[in-house]
């Protein structure tokens, strides 16, 4: 049922919650409250899912970094420390909430909320399964890129409002870096968007169906040989976007202590941290959708054969989350291998290396799509 | 370019000039002041409690001034109030990363005053310990340098090797960091049975790991980009500032105390051509940049292994301590002995008036002298490069402040 | 042309060195970590380790050599001498000052102070760090027996000497008496 007040996308989870709420609504509740409650509930569930993912991401980071460095990582809180994120969360909640003297208080308090809101706003467009989405956004990737760009505002706000020279350095570097790398990010994403012809994430994933769930992924050279360089560029660009090593100058730990996050403590600091892992996961998922098939995998193909709706959804969800975590793992592996790149070298790399190569990939990919692809039997 | 200093850091310029980056100055009537940043005393990148007052114009560093003394523990004054042998643990604690070398320097200075001869086995064990500690110290220097540059993992791999080395020292003298093992007259006790074969096993595994460090960090493109052409110390500047050790050899000056002013067994070792002195050559950038200094340290680790192997091949049983009285009364006089510490020339100048207690113990700490060059090379570099330069000087603040 | 070749070389160098680095870290990712999880697992401690001191009290002769050798004067000892035996009152080492340099161990003439393998020393109260190394206070039973025996022996010896002296004096007196008597007799005749 399409709601008259808020046009919730049909078949989205939000509208399903809405329908259910209409059936259980007591009489004294006014009509406009129902879709609002539905939206709030949906957002709450989305935030919960994202928080789970973020917590798992922090645990994975600590274990991966530990094992790379020949040590264990968390071991005491639960089996191999799987409860460590919860312990960390509790600890951070109990910490003193400090606002430094001379800090711009409203901006200081607003900054972490802003970065987290940007990322959660982007997460709303992320579908967990082909029939489990909170908003069927036709502009999928476009909206995600736009929303994640707004985190920069929060970071610069944090750096400025901290009233600390080191935080200011981190914020300035971050602004320059993130804005510079959005260019190759967008351009590299154009290659799969051209091949798919769609911005919508679910449609892009459906376009890669078939071939036993593996062989029609866009990354393979037989689909388009310019996809692999595009993916490499995309990956480097998302490393810079999420401020991960080797581009972690904004929070360069050994130079600026914690960069723009220096003055933050307790739960506010954990908001920045959550934003980082949520953004990492989101970008990895976007990469999975556009390059690695999204929901398509041998598991999903098997589930489709059984023709049970729930099984297909679960298989698709497992697939996309696994692919997201695989991307996350790769980002972590790179972080603990490579040293940091200096800020002017970051800018050189972004503008002089990544952007021209990305443009070349778009040109080549487009030419391939027009000239060669229609003649390939497995594409159509 | 004319300018008038009004307050600390703020310059009102009347005529324009050319900035170090090559661009012309403009907007001269706008009053700007450079950012005065405090690096330290609490800072993850200054190796110890040291404060460097930087003046920065955006990311460009325009001035640097080290402030010392945060770790001063009156070591030299204590030398005037405790007996000769009792001072030995204090020598450990200035350059705590290369404690064996400190013990060696002090013991050699006092032995020179006494004029005694050290038994050969003691000299062999001393050389093994000093060279092993050189490896350990360079491991930390390289590892923490990687940490400053942003590579977190090589630091932990190098600490794993250092654990091996510290376990070896733990077996021979009982301590992991402040050894107090090389004493006046020899060493405190002989190596336990099996120690020498363990040292040999360490040498064998170390060669493999050394190659890993080079692959992981030293030739990594990003690391090279961060350190090449950064912090260039030309040859004459290095000599003028009195730099020693890898700082000097990284700038291409061929001077190593083990070969040029040999002490203990080193004249024999150099005559047999056991090891080479690695020099910076501007291979990846300019001669005397940070990469050259790192290169010298990494290559020195390999050369130190060669010296240890030579000692293991040539060591023979014998006494490990000279025949000296229990209570030392050093004949009056003065002596200076400089040895090749991992950081440079560590000099001990001792003055005795014939008693049980020294009259003066003066330590020439290499980090203290090497630190002076920072003020000359840091202006004109970016702030991130400033960290790279400080890391490449391999300062230990315990030694700088004593 | 060199600019283009530099450009391409930069790209390839970055990728190549990154992959080499990842191979090394990947290798260690798959290996078992080397961590020894203290306090559940412990590394073996070599027997020359410089840990908390222990004193072989029976051998100690209260000569203060170790106290004099300590650069920081951590050691203080107090005992009452009874002939050759010692009645121990205290032998304290201040671990707030001790720097574990082992200089106290070497000068001991009886080789009775050593540094052990204990390194953990925690306490809620600072006074506990002035650690008493004695295993018993006062005198050991054997020492006491020896002292009593020695005193008894000394006493016996003194008594014997006194007795001997008395006997000797008596004998001398008797001899003198006899001599005077004899002289008297001679004189009488």
Give structural notes.
The complex is a heterotrimer of chains A (380), B (402) and C (189). Chain A has 380 residues and is mainly alpha-helical. Chain A is 65% helix and 0% strand. Chain A is built from 14 helices and no strands. The model of chain A has no long low-confidence stretch (mean pLDDT 85). Among the domains of chain C are: 1-32; 53-141, Alpha-Beta Plaits, CATH 3.30.70.3270. Chain C is rod-shaped. In chain C, 15% of the residues are buried. Chain C contains three helices and five strands. Chains in contact: A-B, A-C, B-C.
Task: Please report the distance between the alpha carbons of the first and last residues of chain A.
Answer: 35 Å
**Global structural class of chain A:** mainly alpha
State the low-pLDDT regions of chain A, or none. Answer: none
Helix count from the secondary structure assignment of chain B? 16
Q: Look at the helices and sheets of chain B and give the structural class.
A: alpha+beta
User: What's the order of the H and E elements of chain B?
Assistant: EEEEEHHHHHEEHHHHHHHEEEHHHH
Biggest β-sheet of chain B, characterized? Answer: 3 strands, antiparallel
Task: Describe the sheet with the most strands of chain A.
Answer: none
Question: What oligomeric state do these chains adopt?
Answer: heterotrimer
Number of domains in the coordinates of chain B?
Answer: 2
Report the sheet-strand fraction of chain A. under 5%
Rounded mean pLDDT of chain B is: 86
Strands across the major sheet of chain B, in which order? 3-4-5
Biggest interface reads: B-C, 31 and 27 residues
Q: Work out the strand percent of chain B.
A: 5-15%
What is the CATH domain class of the largest domain in chain B?
Answer: Mainly Alpha
CATH architecture of the largest domain in chain B: Orthogonal Bundle
Poorly predicted regions of chain B = 1-10
């Amino acid at each position: 049922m399409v709601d008259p007040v808020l046009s919730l996308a049909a078949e989205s989870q939000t509208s399903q919650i809405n329908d259910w709420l209409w059936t259980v609504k007591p009489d004294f509740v006014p009509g406009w409250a129902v879709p609002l409650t539905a939206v709030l509930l949906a957002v709450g569930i989305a935030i919960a899912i994202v928080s789970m993912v973020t917590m798992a991401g922090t645990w994975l980071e600590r274990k991966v970094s530990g094992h790379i460095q020949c040590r264990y990582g968390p071991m005491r809180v639960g089996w191999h420390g799987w409860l460590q994120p919860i312990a960390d969360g509790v600890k951070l909640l109990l910490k003193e909430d400090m606002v430094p003297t001379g800090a711009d208080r409203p901006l200081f308090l607003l900054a972490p909320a802003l970065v987290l809101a940007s990322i959660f706003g982007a997460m709303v467009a992320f579908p967990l399964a082909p029939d489990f989405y909170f908003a069927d956004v036709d502009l999928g990737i476009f909206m995600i890129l736009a929303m994640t760009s707004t985190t920069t505002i929060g970071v610069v706000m944090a750096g400025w409002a901290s009233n600390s020279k080191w935080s200011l350095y981190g914020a300035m570097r971050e602004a320059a870096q993130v804005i510079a790398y959005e260019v190759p990010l967008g351009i590299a994403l154009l290659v799969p968007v051209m091949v798919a012809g769609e911005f919508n994430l679910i449609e892009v994933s459906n376009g890669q169906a078939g071939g036993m769930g593996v062989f029609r992924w866009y990354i393979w050279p037989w689909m388009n040989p310019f996809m692999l360089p595009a993916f490499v560029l995309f990956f480097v660009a998302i490393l810079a976007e999420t401020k991960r090593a080797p581009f972690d100058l904004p929070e360069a730990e050994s130079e600026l202590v914690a960069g723009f996050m220096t003055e933050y403590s307790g739960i506010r600091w954990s908001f920045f941290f959550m934003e980082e892992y949520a953004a990492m996961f989101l970008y990895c998922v976007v990469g999975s959708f556009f390059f690695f098939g999204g929901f398509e995998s041998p598991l999903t193909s098997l589930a489709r054969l059984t023709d049970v709706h729930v099984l297909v959804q679960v298989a698709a969800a497992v697939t996309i989350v696994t692919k997201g975590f695989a991307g996350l793992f790769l980002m972590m592996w790179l972080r603990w291998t490579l040293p940091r790149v200096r800020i002017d070298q970051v800018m050189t790399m972004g503008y002089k290396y990544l952007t021209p190569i990305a443009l070349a990939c778009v040109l080549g990919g487009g030419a391939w799509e027009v000239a060669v692809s229609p003649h390939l039997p497995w594409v159509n | 370019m004319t300018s008038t200093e009004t307050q600390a850091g703020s310059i009102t310029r009347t005529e324009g000039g050319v900035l170090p980056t090559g661009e012309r100055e403009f907007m001269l009537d706008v009053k700007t002041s450079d950012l005065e940043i405090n690096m330290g005393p609490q800072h993850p990148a200054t190796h110890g409690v040291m404060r460097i007052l930087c003046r920065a114009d955006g990311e460009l560093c325009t001035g640097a001034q080290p402030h010392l003394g945060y770790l001063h523990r009156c070591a030299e004054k204590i030398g005037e109030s405790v007996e000769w042998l009792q001072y030995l643990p204090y020598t450990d604690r200035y350059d705590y990363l290369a404690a064996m070398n400190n013990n060696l320097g002090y013991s050699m200075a006092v032995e020179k005053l006494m004029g005694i001869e050290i038994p050969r086995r003691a000299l062999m064990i001393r050389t093994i310990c000093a060279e092993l500690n050189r490896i350990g110290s360079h491991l930390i220097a390289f590892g923490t340098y990687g940490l400053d540059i942003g590579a977190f993992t090589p630091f932990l791999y190098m600490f794993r090797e250092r654990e091996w080395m510290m376990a070896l020292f733990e077996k021979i003298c009982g301590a992991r960091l402040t050894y107090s093992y090389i004493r006046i007259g020899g060493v405190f006790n002989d190596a336990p049975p099996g120690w020498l074969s363990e040292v040999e096993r360490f040498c064998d595994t170390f060669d493999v790991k050394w190659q890993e460090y080079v692959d992981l960090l030293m030739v990594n493109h990003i690391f090279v980009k961060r350190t090449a052409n950064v912090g260039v110390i030309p040859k004459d500047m290095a000599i003028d500032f009195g730099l020693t050790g890898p700082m000097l050899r990284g700038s291409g000056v061929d001077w190593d105390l083990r070969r040029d002013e040999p002490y203990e067994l080193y004249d024999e070792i150099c005559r047999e051509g056991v090891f080479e002195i690695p020099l910076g050559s501007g291979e990846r950038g300019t001669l005397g940049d940070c990469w050259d200094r790192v290169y010298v340290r990494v290559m020195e680790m390999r050369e130190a292994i060669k010296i240890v192997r030579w000692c293991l091949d040539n060591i023979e049983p014998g006494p490990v301590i000279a025949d000296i009285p229990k209570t030392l009364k050093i004949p009056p006089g003065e002596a200076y002995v400089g040895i090749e510490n991992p950081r440079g020339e560590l000099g001990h100048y001792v003055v005795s008036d014939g008693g049980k207690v020294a009259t003066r113990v003066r330590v020439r700490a290499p980090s203290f002298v090497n630190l002076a060059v920072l003020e000359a090379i840091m202006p004109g570099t970016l702030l991130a490069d400033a960290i790279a330069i400080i890391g490449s000087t391999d300062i230990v603040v315990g030694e700088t402040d004593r | 042309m060199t600019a283009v070749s530099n450009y391409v070389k930069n790209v390839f160098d970055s990728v190549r060195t990154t992959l080499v680095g990842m191979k090394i870290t990947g290798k260690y990712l798959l290996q078992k970590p080397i961590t020894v999880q203290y306090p559940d697992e412990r590394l073996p401690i070599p027997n020359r380790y410089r840990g908390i001191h222990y004193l072989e009290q029976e051998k100690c002769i209260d000569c203060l050599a170790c106290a004099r050798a300590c650069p920081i004067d951590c050691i203080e000892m107090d005992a009452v001498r009874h002939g050759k035996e010692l009645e121990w009152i205290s032998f304290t080492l201040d671990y707030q000052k001790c720097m574990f340099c082992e200089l106290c161990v070497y000068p001991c003439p009886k080789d009775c102070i050593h540094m052990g393998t204990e390194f953990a020393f925690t306490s809620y109260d600072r006074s506990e760090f002035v650690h008493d190394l004695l295993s018993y206070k006062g005198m050991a039973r054997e020492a006491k027996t020896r002292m009593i025996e020695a005193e008894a022996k000394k006493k016996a010896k003194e008594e014997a000497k006194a007795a001997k002296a008395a006997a000797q004096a008596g004998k001398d007196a008797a001899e003198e008496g006899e001599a005077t008597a004899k002289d008297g007799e001679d004189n009488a005749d």
